[in-house]
Amino acid sequence: MTDSLTEIWEQNIDRKSAKRRADIVLSQIRKYNPKAKKVLELGVGLGFVLSHFKNFEKFGLDLGKEYIKVAKRIVPDANLFVQSMHNFKIKEKFDVIFTTDECINEIRPYSNWIATFRRAHAHLNKNGLFILEMPTKLYLENHKKRIVKLEETPSGFIYDNTYVKGNRLSWDTVFFKKLKNGLYRVEKDNYDEFIYPVKKVNADLKKKFEILRTQYFNKKENVILVCKKR
Ligand SMILES: C[S@@+](CC[C@H](N)C(=O)[O-])C[C@H]1O[C@@H](n2cnc3c(N)ncnc32)[C@H](O)[C@@H]1O
What we know:
Elements: H1 3-12, H2 15-32, E1 38-42, E2 57-62, H3 65-74, E3 79-82, E4 94-99, H4 111-122, E5 124-135, H5 137-144, E6 150-153, E7 156-165, E8 168-178, E9 184-194, H6 198-205, E10 209-217, E11 222-229
Parallel strand pairs: 1-2, 1-4, 2-3, 4-5
Antiparallel strand pairs: 5-11, 6-7, 7-8, 8-9, 10-11
Bound molecules: S-adenosylmethionine (SAM).
S-adenosylmethionine (SAM) binds at residues 18, 21, 42-45, 48-49, 61-64, 67, 84-86, 100-103, 106-107.
């Protein structure tokens, strides 16, 4: 990831949907661990979700150092780290560890999902929550039928193409960044996501956690799993 791509992502980020993602996690915390004070977000990105955790001691980590640079500005009171969620080590324990919006799906191979569950477990306080939000198989199926169009965004235009092969969803994005002189600069981004059945993920989580809730939303294209440390 380059600084200029990060700048484009920041211009285009849908702040309302970041707030919706935060609200979904916050409502689970209110229900299942209302006394929680200290939270860690895995895959904090630019920080727009974590910024809604008012009155919490906030921590976040991300693999991308350019993202963390921006997140430090968006959530100045958070403690932020450049680390991978599958092998992170922070000298703190948390009441809640959460991840939203397909972050875990960028992890490969699947054994690193299990490593992530172990790291989360090791960093949680007694009765702490691990909250995992991810897309479902239906999301993958719907992407097979998706018609991609050139769309206007705050940074210019975007052509956000996707390909599905097996359980892999590949994003192949072309940005046409509008410059001050009225011309456009082309920037490209691409990454893969891997989508696994909810049943399989739940079965692996159960080895370390009690599953308190499996809740589908977005017309069943997404699911949130609320897990309590055993
Ligand atoms: C789609 S963004 C989501 C950001 C934020 N959670 C949100 O909901 O707006 C996915 C983020 O996951 C991060 N990511 C991907 N693999 C990661 C890993 N192994 N460890 C930590 N972060 C990772 C990416 O760098 C990116 O910032």
